Fold each of these.
Amino acid sequence: QHRKNITDADELSALFCHMRDNPGHSYDWEGSKMVFKSFNESKRKVVESALIATIPNCNLKPGDYPMCKLTARVILDSLNIDASSTIFNRSSIVPNALPSTARPSTTPSSPPIVLPTPANITEPIAPAVSASDIEAFIHQMRPSTSDQLLVPSRDPPATSN
């Protein structure tokens, strides 16, 4: 997904925008690692939002579940995810990895950056999350006994005579 966003020059992709705005920066795709595995998309997105809130990144938005650093830390700690091990390594940057056809042309001037103010915010602000909401979420994230994989015994079943 992320490689395709860069190849397609997707302006909504933080990865593409970072590479466009920082010529010479690239990503070490082969060095990527799984941080959290779940078949539940909501759980994955909560963990992604927690990581965005916790570590330095180039994301354009706070994720699908915006949260403060304190909430993010509680979620990551409850799942035994060490956010410090997910920080990218500057030595993994590959110079000039952005294809020359995708490099932006230089322009004499850029439009000014408009910071959001209460008058020009167009997206709704996420509701506050209570401590009980966090506790309920953490309880949901932990594997239950029904989620455990049962492995059959190697011993053959006993036969009755």
Amino acid sequence: MLKVIIADDEPVIVKGLKKLIPWEEYGLSIIDEAMDGKELWKKVTEKKPDIVVSDICMPEMTGLEFMARLKQEQIEPQVIFISGYQKFEYVQEAIQLGAVDYILKPVLREAMEGAVKKALLRLRNQERLEIFREEKNELQELLARLNSDNGYAPEELYESFCNMGIDYKGKTFVGICFYLDDKRKKRLEVENYKKAELIKFSVFNRIQNFFRDNKKGVPMKREEDCLYILCMIEPKEKGTLLSDYVLPVLDLVEQEMKTELRSGVGSFSEKASDLGYMYKSAKFAYEMRYFLDRKVICADDIHKKFTDSFEDYERLKKEIREMLVTRRPEVTEKFEECIELIKNLHYGNRYAVINRCILFSGTLNDDLKAYGAAFGEDEKRQIEFMEKMRASITYDELKQEFLDYYGLLTNQIASRAVLWENPAIAQVVNYMKAHFEEDINMRKMAEMACVNSVYFGALFKKTTGRNFKSFLTGLRMDEAKRLVITTDLRTYEIAEKVGYQNTRQFTEKFREYYGCSPAEYKRKLTEK
């Protein structure tokens, strides 16, 4: 069983978390708990848990201080943070420090289970199954030696190859990386992680056998998700490498194992002493899969543009901020220009692109808040957006998330601008948000706006996009759902708190909104 420590300065929260999900079903055992940050640090260093679930605002040592210290001491449990309030800066820093997830209180079972699954996937990726531990064969030792300062002399190299039964004289060398399609691999791991590992093991063994049987290559290195082959061919075969050796392997695996395989091909060399370079160029081709949706990626076909600079990025970022604040519609095109510029700046480095997008998002949000163009409600969407970027498998996925998010944000800022341009309606909306539980009606609100009821109704809908009654009901139902989730109030008590004197009328409206009664909604949450 994997070990878990839960930390919160409120004992009732710790007790609730221990009962929230069936930890044992996930192969997890809660071995201890802590009431403050120092106690948590002491128990983590002593008991070496695999997963830590902690409030981010602990006394004695905050969650962020705890994460920073873990990193400094190179201790690597998977950390899931919980918090009673949402602050984007905390979320951003926690994730940058390596936290698995950030969950808002009250913690729902579904959210915790999702975070635990993420943590388990990370742990398995770190530890790997025994069958995927790197093989310490002679070729790997040779590779390590060639990449160190103590390289082999040509005669030593020849002797080393001969000892492995490899005749490399007169050959052309190239490193080839084989790997499962990322989307297919992700689906397999979600369905059954152990099965996914066994499939990889079988696939990589089949590839090794193919090159061994054809006497054209040997395994150079096996990593968690890919296999590197050192391929040795006649110089005249360089032009037919893909058709003779790479594509046949991909087709073979797909036919025999019903698994989509892809490949990254490194640069050619006539010297066996370039073994380290061949491995690195094949690895570079493999890393380019984030940017290029190709069955085979060849390192020699990749060319980076050097037309963009970080000065261009800063200029564009400033331009976007100014266009958003002044509500210029052409800002949409600038977002597309921005994501392409970020790609060009960090082309070939997936993590640099993602981190740059996260940094852009954080600084832009701070700027918009300073100008009064962003609100607290935007931060939740921003956190979700950040998680989607981190989870993106390809650059195209990242780009689409980026454009969708900022397209929505642009529209929201524009709609808020309409509200600002109608101060009478803005005053009414703010009043409704603060007093929705009171006896509010259109006549009273029209008087507040100093217009007649008929004109008020038309103006309200034009400004907010919703009619008065629908807008008021939406405010009440949002609060009702929050109270159902976070309190133990009875249905009639919730009805009164959101402005309904008739409990039956409230229940019917709640059912209309959420598909069930408040009591049924509460029961579904506890059953999850």
